[in-house]
Amino acid sequence: MKRILLILFFIVLSFSLLFSQSKKKSPNELPERYRKWLEEEVVYIISKTERDVFLQLETDRERDLFIEAFWKHRDPTPGTPENEFKTEHYRRINYANFNFGRGVPKPGWKTDRGKIYIILGEPRDIERYTGESEIYNTEVWFYQGLTQYGLPPGFNLVFFQKGGVGEYVLYSPTADGPQALMTSYFGDQADYLAAFQKLKEINPTLAQTSMSLIPGESAYYGRPSLSSDILLQNVMNVPQKQFEDKYAQKFLAYKDIVEVEYTANYIDNDNSVKILRDPSGIYFVNYVIELSKFSVQEYERKYSTHLKLNGNLTDEEGKIIYQYESSLPISLDEAGLKSVTYRPFNLYDMFPVLPGKYKFSVILKNEVSKEFTTFEKEIIISEDDSSPRLSPLVLGYKAEASSSEDERLMPFKIGGEQIYHEPKNIYLPQDTLYLGFQVFGLSKELKERGIIKYEFLREGEIFKSLTRKISEYSDQRNILEEFSLNAFPPSRYRIKVVLLDGEQELASSFDDFDITPVTSLPRPWVYNKKFLPASDPAYDYILGKQYFSRGDFQNARQRFEKAFQKKPDSIEFALALSQVYSIENKFSQVKETLLPFVKRPEVPYQVYFLLGKSFQALGEYSQAIYYYDEAISHFGINFYLLNLLGECYFKIGSIEEALAAWKKSLEINPDQPEIKKLIESIKK
């Protein structure tokens, strides 16, 4: 049942992703309270992506969940009952309506002062020029400490009553100029310098601000500073720089898949996927998911959570090739919690895969906090070793060697060492960079004369380069190198690995990394379990399932046979093999494989069904009836099983029993014209 539910889950996922771009509504089509929320309450702080997603939602329930997610992703203290951002936002709206809507024919939030106040909040200082005969009523708002949004350390915003009446409007040095601030300026409206000189005689401080909103910046050639217009644009973009809006797209894509209590709780992640080949020849997808925050629950000074991981692999036509589910319980004591509190969480995982081109997607859910995250990747796996090639590069901040006796698999293990690989690839100057990769398709001659060249590029130029002969490596397929970063100044780099035959480049692979100027980095805590050795039959079984999903039953059978031979007491392996035997009409092999399991307790339905089908195909109808009856007695009736049972009764001449089975089948599913005809023909 779990497998069926998982398959249905990913079928729904595929269709949801395919049709997630619903028709976008007009705001006027929304119910009033949602239109008001979108067009009035959050109009200045909602991103284009969030707005587009909201307009694609179909039901009020979806809109309520989205609004919950919208505020949740802006909550600076998600662990507390109050959302301080939301509280402050509505305070700003109320303040704007009370203070900026007086004497104007619009609510305060719609005015220029209201808009800026809602976006930036309270200014550090306000200079007011009112009641002066030569200057229109003007306010200069000074802001400071907003550099994280790309704004200057300090800047002014000017509002004035254009023509001396109505609301205060936002002033632009280039669009308005000093002349717009004066009540009796009759000079050339295009002569900014003359207007500046005139305003300087009236109010030197305001005159300087009228030419540049950035204190200390001078105007050039008698023209206002263009930096001021850039500043005004950046101010309007502050809400988009405050928060990531990726959650909105995930909400739209997964709203029909993830349980309701998770929907509003999407958290972002960093991830990396690398394809590596085990010495046994099996390819493995190695991946890491990094979460910047990680929620646990407390009980008797113990801290725990439960993660659920769903993975899905589809081919180019969207057909499901493989899906899996993992349950990951995590427990920490108080000391353990303190050691990981301010560090990101990395989940390492891996699974075997056949060569091919796929879309790989993962959903990770935290069942304690009801948060979820997801990612999708396109992956291509080639098995062509006719010419030399390199695997993707795996960069790490640490490497650990496993004992020579330990054959268990670990994610990002190359040769005998596991590389601790972080998706962001960020290092300190005092770090050692660990680089691992695999080399395929080497001829005997190339192993002797081939060269590996390492190039570190900075801003497109070679910063450092070195070469090594392939023959210098004891393991010429799995290569691990260490590079001290002491001589690397903080910057972004690209490392390129090239396989050379003399001067001829045969293959290459590259990746990017950053060296940060900060003094320390919080390295993640890693959930990193070890997996069974590559010789374990579980991998043959998984690869057999992938062949089966492709419709390649011959290779599926070979894999299932290998798994079953290694572990003949596994009913799971026996069933998989028997399904292929049944498709290939090898019914004697089905009997031989499954009969030893029928005396076990809790025998799966498929065992009885496949045995019944095999005995029926071999003409042993009484035995087939026995196993069909066993299936019904253990798991209940279905019309398909009743039809097969009726056929067997009919073959041995038990007409009444056959008719009873078929009639019962019609009660369950009346839409069976062939069964109706069969019953009528027998009655005649």
Please specify the SSE layout and strand pairing.
Elements: H1 2-19, H2 32-41, H3 48-54, H4 60-72, H5 84-100, H6 112-120, E1 125-129, E2 138-144, E3 154-161, E4 168-170, H7 192-202, H8 204-211, H9 226-236, H10 238-242, H11 246-254, H12 260-263, E5 270-277, E6 283-291, E7 297-299, E8 302-314, E9 320-332, H13 334-340, E10 345-353, E11 356-366, E12 371-381, E13 389-390, E14 394-396, E15 398-401, E16 413-414, E17 417-420, E18 426-427, E19 432-440, H14 444-449, E20 451-458, E21 461-469, E22 478-484, E23 491-501, E24 504-515, E25 525-527, H15 537-550, H16 553-566, H17 571-583, H18 587-594, H19 605-617, H20 621-635, H21 639-651, H22 655-668, H23 673-683
Parallel strand pairs: 10-25, 18-24
Antiparallel strand pairs: 1-2, 2-3, 3-4, 5-6, 6-10, 7-8, 8-9, 8-11, 11-12, 13-19, 14-19, 15-17, 16-17, 19-22, 20-21, 20-23, 23-24
Molecular structure report:
It is a single chain. The protein is an alpha+beta fold and about 675 residues long. The protein folds into 4 domains: about 1-75 and about 245-250, no CATH class; about 125-220, no CATH class; about 265-525, Macroglobulin (MG2) domain (Immunoglobulin-like); about 535-540 and about 550-684, Serine Threonine Protein Phosphatase 5, Tetratricopeptide repeat, CATH 1.25.40. It contains 23 helices and 25 strands. The strands form 6 sheets. Strands 7, 8, 9, 11 and 12 form a 5-stranded antiparallel beta sheet that branches. A hairpin with a 4-residue loop joins β11 and β12 (about 370-380). α16 (about 555-565) runs antiparallel to α17, α18 packs antiparallel against α19 and α22 (about 655-670) packs antiparallel against α23 (about 675-684). It is extended and about 115 Å long. It starts with a helix and ends with a helix.
